Write the C-alpha cells for this entry.
Amino acid sequence: MIQLIRGFKDILPGEVELWQEVEKTAKSLFDDFGFKEIRIPIMERTELFARSIGEDTDIVEKEMYTFPDRKGDLITLRPEATASVCRSYIQHKLYAADPVRKFYTIGPMFRRERPQKGRYRQFYQINAEIFGVDSPLVDVELIFILNTLFSKLSVPDVTAHINSLGCPDCRPDFKTALSKFLTSVVDDLCSDCVRRKDRNPLRVLDCKVPSCREALKEAPSILDYLCTTCIQHFDTVKNALASLDVPFVVDKRLVRGLDYYTRTTFEMQTHALGAQNAVAGGGRYDGLIKSLGGPDIPATGFAIGLDRLTEIAGLDRSALFKTPDIFIAALGQKSRILAFEWLCALCLKGVETEMEFEDKSLKSQMKQADRVGAHHVLIVGDNEIKEGSVILRNMKTKDQVSIPIENAVENIKAKIS
Ligand code: HAM
C-alpha cells in the first residue's frame, strides 16, 4: 500500500472540525481588525525566498523543496508566506491608492526539517501582515490579536517573548561586537556557526546546537546597542503591551530564523508544546519591500503554526463534531423513494439527514442510526405511508411522535428544532 510521505499528514474528519473552528475564529478576528484575505501561490521562484529569508538561514540553506521545472527555472514550494505577500503587494502595486494595507492568508508551507511532534514538512500557517505603518503600536496590535485569539481558543500558558533587532543604523555596531565575541569562542561552535560567524553573525544566535547555546551565554545583547529611535520604538511596544495587559517577557536572545527582521521581533511561546515551544512568531521587516524592488514601505506581521495551535487549543473536540440530525429508516422500495426525496429536501433546509439505501431490517437500520450518532430516526414503512403518518423517534429520550405525511418535511423540521 502507498503510504504518505514522511513529515506530511492527513487531517481527518474528527480532527478537521477543530481546524475549521480555529480558522473561523481567526478569520472573524481579522475581519474585526480590518484585515483582508489574500491568496498567494504555493510555488514561487526560488530567488524570492533566497533573497527575502536570507541565503545563510537554515530554511534557505537546508530546508527548501526546490527543483527545476521542465524549462530549468528553479522553483520552490513556499516555506513561508511573507515573501509572497510582499511580492504580490509590489507586483500589483497594492500600495498605489493607499500604502496602508492589512492582509491575512491561511495555507500550507513546506520545510524539509527533521520531523517530530509539532514539526512537519508540510505544515499550515495563519499569516497576518500590515504594510505602510511605522508606528510600534501596530507591532502591539499584532501581538494583541495573537493573545486574544489564543485566549478565545483556550490555549493555556502563552507568553509573548519580545526583542528588538535594531535597524541599519545600529545593527552594524552590534554585528561587529558579536563577531568579535564569536571569534573568542570559535572552538566551541558547530561547523555551520563557524562558517556563519563572519558572513551573518546574527544567525549564530539562532543556532539550536547545545554546545553553541552554551558558548553563547555571555554573548553581547543587541539591546545594549540600539540607537535612540530603536530604543523609543521598543519602549513604546513594552508600554503598550503592559497597558493592554498582554503578558510578555523581553528575550534578548530572540533573533528568529529569518533574515528580514528589523526592530520588534516576537514569538508566542508555551510550555504546552514540548520541544517546539513557539506557536507563533513574527516581527517588523521595514526593509524587505524595498529590497524586493518595491517602494520604501515599512511592514510588520506574524505567522501562527496552525498544526501546533490545534494541538494545544483547549476546545472540546467532541462538541465540534457534527452528527446527523435525522436517520431515515425506510422499509420497502416505495418508502425508500419517498425517504430519498425527503432526505434531499431536509438537507436543503439545513437538516443533516442520512438513510440506508439497501433493503435492511428495522433492527439493523436502528443500529446503524446509533452508530452514526443520529439524533432522531424517522421510520418510514409502506404501512405508515398507507396510514398517512410516519414515526419520528428521539434517540436520546426515546420519545416517539407521529408526523403527518402531508407537508412532512416542514413538520419534521419543526419537530426537531
Ligand atoms: P516562523 O517562525 O518561521 O515565521 O514560523 C511561524 C510559526 O510557524 C512558528 O512559530 C511555528 O509555530 C510554525 N512552524 C514553523 N515551522 C514549522 C514546522 N516545520 N512544523 C510545524 N509548524 C511550524 C515565519 O514563517 C514568518 N513568515 C512569520 C512572519 C510573518 N513574520 C512576519 N510576518
